[in-house]
Structures are given as structure tokens and as C-alpha cells.
Amino acid sequence: MTAVNVEHEYFTCQQVEDLALLKINKGAKKLLTSVDSKETIMSVLGTIKDTKTIKGVAVIYSDKYTGHNEYRQLLSDILEIETTSTQRNVNLYRNAIIQFLKTIHSYPLPIVSGMNGEIGPDTLGLNLAFDLRIVSNNTVFFSHNLDLGFPPSSILSFYLVQSLGSPLATELMLTKNELKPEELLELRLINKIVSTEDLESTCLHKLRRLVRIPKHALVEARSMLQPNIDEVLKHIDSGLKSSLRSIYKMKP
Q1: Quick check: 108 and 115 in contact, CB under 8 A?
Q2: Coil, strand, or helix at residue 203?
Q3: For residue 21, what is the enclosing H or E element?
Q4: How many CB atoms lie within 10 A of CB 118?
Q5: pLDDT in tens, 166-194
Q6: pTM score, whole prediction
Q7: Could you tell me the end-to-end alpha-carbon distance of the chain, in angstroms, rounded to an integer?
Q8: CB atoms closer than 10 angstroms to residue 233
């Protein structure tokens, strides 16, 4: 069977022995707001799932990833476009996030993420749904929503409350607009910090320790260890409605 090998403008995917290595290079905003790009990466995940020689997936954000600038630009773009377009873009964003979460929740292969560079709040929230998270010491986690007049990321706020409890999650979201890897490790939101050079190999090593788990057992384990997917989706919808209300108040 032919090995998986995909070259895309915003990501690459290669088969490394019996594992898939999915690298997010840039344009994460496009992956969530462009139908074509989103469908392409979803198709790749489907191909990986159906490839019998692949037993796990590592999702790694490369050193080309510039999440901070892209995320700020996304919020700026939302404010500048007219109301009907705002609603349409928010719906595209919502549908993409929900599709990713549903796919991850029921995915029959282990997924380990390797975060590097500038990681925004929605990206961190999505990564908290993965099985394990490895972070390079070159990573910066940012959340400037409140500074820009937006409510906190709905997906990140949900997973933070689930993981840390409401008081600590509230303190972090209201008082911290940037977090260092060491802070996330102390909170047990990530599993390990490594050098940028060791990020890929560490993710693949961790992944190999998970591939022994039968597929059906992994899916059942997620259903027990991860929050109920319907609760996540309900919170995301509520958060996006809050974002829309804020957008309308900030528009002239």
C-alpha cells in the first residue's frame, strides 16, 4: 500500500514507518475558515484512519507557525467586515471546530500533539482534546481576547474549567494573556517540555507507547476520560454567541 505523503500550502503529512506525521506550517486561520482547506485536512485524517499500516498520528506545529499574528488578524478582520459576513464567518469557524472535535473524540488512533511557536487560545483548546501534548521550550501560549474586547476562547475556557476547576480557570483567563510552557506543565495541561530539535522525535516516541491500545478500547477510554462531546459543543455555541454580541457592541 502506498504511504501517505501530502504537501499542502498550510500543512504536510508524511508516513513515518507505522505513524503519520502531520505538520501545521502556517495558515491555521485558513484551515478553520476556508472550506477547501478544512475539507482537505479532514480528508487526510480520513485517509490516515483507513490506512491499515498507520497506527497513530502526531500533529506538530512547526517553527514556521505564526499563530499570534494570524489570530490577531482574524479578530481584526471580523471587526472590519459587515454584519452578515461576520455571522457567516463565525458559522464557518464554528462548524470547523465542531467537525475537528467530533473527529478527534471518535478517532480510532492515538493522537499526540507537539506544540511549538506561537499557540493561540483556540489552538490550545483543540490540543487539550488530544491524548498527549508535548511542548517545545520555544513555545509561547497567548490569549489576548479580553484585551481586544472579545470574550475568552470558548473551547479553551471549557477545557480549562474541566481540567482546573472554575476558580483557577477564571483567574488564568482574566489575569494572564500569555503563559510559558513551564506554567502549563505545572498545571498538568501538557505532558513534557523538550527542545525544538527533540519535539518531533519525542512525539513519535510517546505515540509508539500508545499504539498498543486496541482501537475500540482507545475510543471508549476517551469517552470516559474526555468531557462529554455534547457539553463541549453546547459551550462552544454559547461562547460564539457571546463573541457575536461583543462584536456588535464594538462595531460603529
Answers
A1: no
A2: helix
A3: strand 19-24
A4: 20
A5: 999 999 999 998 999 999 999 999 999 99
A6: 0.86
A7: 57
A8: 17
